[in-house]
Each structure stands twice: as C-alpha cells, then as structure tokens.
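fold description:
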Amino acid sequence: MIDGPRPGRPRGRGLLGGWLFALVWLGICVAAGTSVLSKGSDSMGLLVVGLFTALGLGMLVKALRQTRLAARHQGAGLRCDPPRPRGGQALRVQLRSAHVVAGRAATLRLAEYRIDDHDSTTRTRLVWEQRSGATLASIEEVPWLQAQFNVPADAAASDARRGDEKVNWRIEWLDAGGEPELSFDLDVQAGPDIVEEPADRWAPRAVGPAPAGAATGAASTPLPEVLAFHEDAKGVEWRFVRRGWRILALCAGVAALLSLGLAWQLHLLQHERGAVVACWAAGALLLAATLHGASLRWHLRVGDDGACVDRGSWLAPRRQTLPLTALSQLQIELAYTISTAGDTVEYHRVRAPGRADGACQLTPGLATRAAAEGLARRLTRAAVDRGPRFAPGQMRGDASPGLGPEVQVLLAWAGWAALVGLAALPLRA
C-alpha cells in the first residue's frame, strides 16, 4: 500500500472565501438597513433588506458548518491498493482522519460522478455508487478506517469525457444522513479487456433508437406519468401530469394574494404611492405566473395528418408539429435523475430527431427506461392502429370543436387583465 492523493474535494475547502463573502454580504445588508431606517418606516424596503439578510445568515451558517467539518477531519489522508485501480479490479482503501473514533460505525462509498463543465456553470451529478461498512484498524499507532470495493468492469477512466461531461471517481466518508462529509479523488483506469469505448449508459445526451417490438395497442399499459388517454375522430392523445408546475402555481397564487393584500393595507394606511404600486405590480406578475403554471399542459396527439406536441398554457401557447414519418425514428434519452434517501431514479424521455431547430421532445421524463421504450413503441404503432376500422364516424364520434388556441390565449389575457383591474379598484385615490 502507498499513500494516495490528498482529499480532492473536502467540504472544508474554500473556507476563507466563504467567510469573506458572507461577512461582506451581511455588511452591505446592515448598511442598507440603516439607510432605510433613517428615511422612515419604508415597509417594502425593510422587507427586501430582511430577505437579503436572511440569505446572508444562511451563508454564514454554511461557512460555520464547513469550518466545523474541516476541523473534524484535520490531517485526513487516503491509501489505496492498487493506487490506480482498473475496471473489474478489487479495491482496498484505508482512510485516516482526526474524527476516527473506536467503536463508532462509519460508511465509506466509492462513487462515480459526472461533471458538466462545458459552459460557465458547473453541474455535478452522482451516477453510480457502492457503499461499504468500514472497520477500524491501527497502523503505526494511528487509527485508520479500511474498506473494500469492486470497481465495475465497464468503468470509465477518470477525467474521460462523456459528451459534455467529465468522469470523476471519489472515495467518500458518509455522515449519518448518507451525505458525503469528506471526499478524496480516485484515479481509475479503464479495464484491460475493453478494446473499444463502452456504451455510456449514464450520459444524458447519449440516445438510441427505440427498440422494435410488437405493441398491443395505443391505450395499453397505463403509465403513472400519464394523466389521461383520449381518443376521438381526429386522433389519439396522451395527456401528461404536470404536478410540479401545479405546486409552483399554488405557491405563486398565495404570494399574489399576499402581495395584493399588502398593497391594499399600505393604501389604507396612506403609505407612499410608489410602494403601493410596487406591491400591486408584483401581485399582477405573480397572478400571471399562477395562471401560467396552473394551465400549463403537455399533450401529445397523433392524428391522420401528423403528430403534435402541445406544451403551452392559457397565456403562452407552444406547439410543435411533426409528420407521421418522424414517429418511425424515435429515440430514448436520459433526461435527469432525482436522488432521495440514497435512492436514485432515472427519468427518460422520448424524442423525435431530424428537425432543423433540433430534436422535438415528445414526452416529459418517465420514471424508467422501460416505460419510455414502451411508449415509443405505442407511438410508432399509433398511426398503423388508426386503420380503416377506426375511420372517423364509425366506431368513434366526432371530436368536439372547442375554442381555437388563439381565442383561448385572448380570453386568458383578458381574464388576467380583468382580475388585475378589479384588484386595483380599491387603490384608486
């Protein structure tokens, strides 16, 4: 065994910068608050200063926590055998830290991260992990934690590129909540038996054609992400759930009511006209956000004249159309991942490539790749299923005419203007 690298990404790194930024931020907030108080009781000014002060206090708490972790793991080090493991090899590690205490259980993790650094914003996501309970060993009268891992056979080499992302391997010490509090970079090499670059099953931009296979029918095997399936004389339609947008719309609606209520209160107290108008304008914008989020939809329709993806709302229409031939070239794409309580769920979506303005996303993220592949098969078969036996007027009734999208948008904006105008009536001088 030989000494491994120093901690590559300890949580206590950048302490000086974090402390300076938090203190300067709070200093500016104190100066701004003093200026606002000297000019009188400006409720809006005090509210804004209070929000920024709360943000500065959060930064200060984070800096304190990082300092505590840095002191806890002072003098940390890592040993690896082998020091540069290859894919498919067993890896033994020994970790030294001032926080190693006899009799206290500890968990180490071998983790593969992908770092998206192709633009000014760096995003890191965990794509693979293996946990191991650590045992205590005394080496040269110094307590060490030791654990053993198995590097996956198809492991990508450290610093290798996968699309716009860089591969990064780490050995991490997990806290009681399963979050890494100490991290070491690990130099992993690709396995010796890999002649060609293996297919990257984690890359969010690596897509493949939807697998061929028999499909039972357009409405079979319901998906939890599908709110409703509708079929009429003009085509078949999948309507997807937008639960996150509904929650945001609810929050925006509550904020709009609070903002408009504050405007009325300031008006009754004969406050400055500028503060009243500012609260009213904020309420109007939040009301528009509420209407947009509450009416935002994701409908995918396949008809005799092509496919249509409707991702608009009452206030902002957004439609994309595709010919039926595009449904024969569908692809699956890893959209994003969500990790909760140590479990990571991958969300895949179906897309149709070949458009001049880029690929058309047909579905939102579906909880499994199998669900995305199954829906892709059903989309491919949808046009075939609408054969002579499904001719309009025979087994299905005519589609309801409804209102056109332009009329819906006009009515929605008119309703928003009416609500904003009614909210402004009590504010008239």
Q: What stands out?
A: The chain has four domains: 2-72, 77-186, 208-242+297-398, 244-295+415-427. The first strand starts at residue 2 and ends at 3. The two ends are 81 Å apart (CA to CA). The domain at 77-186 is CATH 2.60.40 (Immunoglobulin-like).
